[in-house]
Design brief:
Order of helices and strands: HHEEHEEE
Structural class: alpha+beta
Distance between the termini: 167 Å
Number of strands: 5
Radius of gyration: 51 Å
Amino acid sequence: MAYINLLPWREEAEKAKQREFFTILAAVALGAFAFVFIVSQIFQAQIDGQNTRNQFLQNEIKLLDIRIGEIKTLNAKKKALQERTSVVEQLQRSRNVGTQVLDELAKIVPNGIYLTQLKKQNNIIRLNGKSESNNHLANMIRAIERSDLLTEATLESITSTDAKSKLLSDFKMRVRIKGLNAEPIAEVTKGEKK
């Protein structure tokens, strides 16, 4: 039988298996590195996209904050303008109040009542005067309640202190003007009215 040396063949086969193993190992390592690199690039692209969207949203939020500030300024200007308009309307409504009040009082005050003083404070008129009879005062109060301009007549006092004129008693009355808001204090003093 012939002698065959199988040792070099086995060594060559082992070396081939080692080269194949290292080649596979290198391919797997290269494939794993490529996979990790691709996945990291995908995630980085998503992060960059989200950062771009976030920056866009922050820019839009800044623009909206500027617009909100402008709207607040416009609302403040609108409110101030409405207040001014309200004041002008109130002044327009109350422009002839003094004349209207005097005209209405001339119609309401019956014979036998004499007004000595008239004070207007905001929408309240305080009347001081003299009366020949309490019936005349009652008639005047009823006339005030029927009036389109005056209301809420309140008799504060009736006094008879003057010994010379026992027929006349002093009275104080408070009357409210309808539909009139607070205004500066005004005072008118009249002579006796019959």
